[in-house]
Amino acid sequence: MRSSLRLLALPLLAISSGALAQTNFRPGYVVQPAGDTLRGEVDNRGAQYNGTISRFRPDAAATVVEYQPQQLAGYGFVSGQHYQALTLPGQVPTKAFLEVLALGQLSLYHYTDAAGKEHYYTRKGTEPLLPLVQRDTTVTRVNAQTGLPVTTKERQYPLRAVLWSQMADCPTAQVAVKSLELKESQLLKAVTAYNACQGGAATYARPARTSKTRFTALVLANRGQMDIERVGKDKVQSGWSAGGGLGLDFAPAFFNPKLTLQLQLLYTQHSFTKEQAVSDAQLVTGTDGRINYSIVQNTIQIPVLLRYTYPKGPVRPYLQAGPLLSLFTKNSADAVLTYKTYAGVAKTENSSLEMRSYGIGGTIGVGVAIPTAVGDFTLEARNDVTDALVHDDGISGKSGVSVVAGFTFGK
């Protein structure tokens, strides 16, 4: 079963590797130092890359030109981020492309460095950038009552002093600074409020992220496997069967944009059969014994998955995993034993096992998402496992391999 999953996943991994190496040109522009704006397509490869270089081409057939921050005033995307080339504060001044979060009397910027660490800066008017910093420190103090040292963690907020000073001419906006955390949504709200206090809205403010829910339709091909200990622990596999279902794709505003929650409702059907010889020592009452197991399962699967999706490119690989609840609308296991008595008379004995009505387990999958104008097409290889399915010893939990195709409606 694991080898089957690997075989199913290999093509998806190959597609994913190709996707990671692809460029991601989108309609955009570059602003030259003299103020001239060139329109065309700009490569969008993520926050770290976008902060150090801008790759521009007038159209899809044109040669790509790479710009360093020293060569442009800024660049951006028609329906996305906007960047300005600014000098970062520090002992060694460095110029970089900073993402614009808000422009006005007080402007707010975001930058991701080469190590992936996020930084926020503000600038009042044409003054130099000031960093917004929040840090956690460990402090050791002597307890006055016990005389023993006590170590605690404290959070310091230098950013509040910076913003308090910059907003000194608007006391109503200063109030929010007292409890401000280094969170993009809070910073954007505070800066926007200050610019409004100064006599008008900001000339630009990046829209705040909102939670989003999308509907998904799914079809799948699935194959199951389990152990039947009473026939020598041999693996028993079902054939491939078709199934389908529905899902909801949740993207909470407070989540990292690369993460989503998937709640799915899937229906599958499996039929397992296994015939095995029974030794005379096990049979006791006769010879030539054979036992045939027939197991039928109709299952409603409810996986709850956390999905990580690489957010750029025409083909976007993803990995997801989470718990699984299986509800069996039918879960029967019948055993038919045939043998000959010592007198040579053929005998048949029928029995049924008491099976559980549910199973608990987990799911993991790897796939690709292909964005379109009306939604995302997905293709995935998935493996799931559930715990034991019978009250008595004899039948193990089930594992399954699936190929799942889906379409998530909406952008």
Structural account:
This protein is mostly beta strands and 411 residues long. The chain has two domains: 25-205, no CATH class; 212-409, Porin (Beta Barrel), CATH 2.40.160. It has six helices and 23 strands. Strands 1, 2, 3, 4, 5, 6, 7, 8, 9, 10 and 13 form an eleven-stranded antiparallel sheet that branches. Strands 14-16-17-18-19-21-22-23 form an eight-stranded antiparallel barrel. Strands 11-12 form a two-stranded antiparallel ribbon. A hairpin with a 7-residue loop joins strand 16 and strand 17 (259-278). The protein is elongated, with a radius of gyration of 31 Å.
Give the structural class: mainly beta
Low-confidence stretches: 15-21
Q: What is the highest CATH level, the class of the largest domain?
A: Mainly Beta
Helix content: 10-25%
End-to-end separation in angstroms reads 35 Å
Q: How do the helices and strands follow one another from N- to C-terminus?
A: HEEHEEEEEEEEEEHHHEEEEEHEEEEEE
Strand content bin: over 45%
- Main sheet properties: 11 strands, antiparallel
